[in-house]
Amino acid sequence: MENYKVLIKPSVFKDIDKIPKKNRKKIIDKIRGLSSDPWPQGSIKLSGEEKYRVRQGNYRILYHINDGELIVSVVKIRHRKDIYKH
């Protein structure tokens, strides 16, 4: 299986800065893991959207997958209580 290129939306870096340091490493490792497996165990396709969600502790990582170009685009990281609020 080929590796996917992981693109991170600029606003995601702001999301990461707001996360307590003790949780950041695991979240960053989870994002890096998406390059080799964009559908890790526990990932779920969101209903009505072309996004997927993967959990890391109390945080959720939302991302798009473009299979044609082998790209995973991380679009948002938030605490589980805030992730689905618009």
Descriptive overview:
The protein contains two helices and five strands, in the order E-H-H-E-E-E-E. It has 86 residues and is of the alpha+beta class. The chain has a single domain, classed as 2-Layer Sandwich (YaeB-like fold). The chain has a five-stranded mixed β-sheet with strand order 1-5-4-3-2. A hairpin with a 4-residue loop joins strand 4 and strand 5. The N and C termini lie far apart (35 Å). 16% of the residues are buried. The mean pLDDT is 93.
Identify the CATH class. Alpha Beta
Helix content: 25-40%
Query: Strand order of the main beta sheet, please?
Result: 1-5-4-3-2
Overall mean pLDDT = 93
Q: What class do helices, strands and sheet pairing give?
A: alpha+beta
Task: Explain the layout of strands and helices.
Blueprint: E1 5-8, H1 10-18, H2 21-33, E2 44-45, E3 52-56, E4 59-66, E5 71-79
Parallel strand pairs: 1-5
Antiparallel strand pairs: 2-3, 3-4, 4-5
TL;DR?
The protein contains 2 helices and 5 strands. With 86 residues, the protein is α+β, with helices and mostly antiparallel strands.
Question: Which descriptors apply to this entry?
Answer:
five-stranded mixed β-sheet; globular
